[in-house]
Amino acid sequence: MAINYQLILDSICDEVKGLLSKGKVASYIPQLSAVSPLQFGIAAYCLDGRVFTAGDAQKKFSVQSITKLFALALAFAREGDKIWSRVGREPSGNPFNSLSQLEYEYGIPRNPFINAGALVIHDILAARFVQADIALLQFIRMLARQPALDFDKAVALSEHQTAHRNYAIAHLMKDFGNLHNPVETIIEGYCRQCSITMNCIELARAASFLANHGSIPWDGTRILDASSSKRLNALMLTCGTYDAAGDFAYRVGLPAKSGVGGGIVALVPGELAIAVWSPGLDATGNSLAGVMALERFTTLTARSIF
Ligand code: GLN
Predict the structure, then answer these.
(1) Residue 93 has pLDDT above 90, yes or no
(2) The overall pTM is greater than 0.90
(3) Which end of the chain is less enclosed by CB atoms within 10 A, N or C?
């Protein structure tokens, strides 16, 4: 029976209000620090096309690292298992922008969801498309069914001007031979990739193919075969929320991907994709109220992949 999630989303929206002032907005990208933390949105996109929303679900935000999910899907769809010779599939246990592991692991990032891994994926896309960032934007527009999605140029510039760590990561990988394009090209494209803005509804819809065995729910277009889709779900569970993935699996129990803009998209395989946004982050860089909202969602609905 099709469940009506409206009351649940409304009550979650109410419950998390007290948490909004407790998180810290990301400040290492100056443009993101200007966003008010007192915002919260949630949207569930069901595979049968129903959409439930509450709070600031229509408000655009910087999706940041969540684009790593779509970039991986595009690279995996085009290149298949070849990508795994350049990036691993293990949780890093380190912050998403850490450099330390890369040095003793010979420039092979632990997984595609930390910055190093996302830079390698961007490099793979750059070898395949004239402009990787544009190809990715078009891919996400198609997945979100929203041709108006775009980069936020101010956010991209702001990140580029302060991208010292990402430059360091890219140079280290270049030295190890795991970055084929010029460092500058990849950092610039990656900053633009991260600056894409979406709202919760668009984000949930864009990720819904991953809850639907790899095909777009409304027209059946296959993005990934079922096995590859299952594998991306596994990576989301183990690596999608930085070094808090274990705690997230414990508390929420769904595959998910987060970003420092305060967004998180999670999947209930076979049923729906759900996106939350609240800019205040916890110490691991995940949205404080967003994680709590998803924890409440799976608790109130008894949903979990376990
Ligand atoms: N653009 C951000 C960075 O590279 C993305 C990080 C994130 O969302 N975790 O630092």
Answers:
(1) no
(2) yes
(3) N
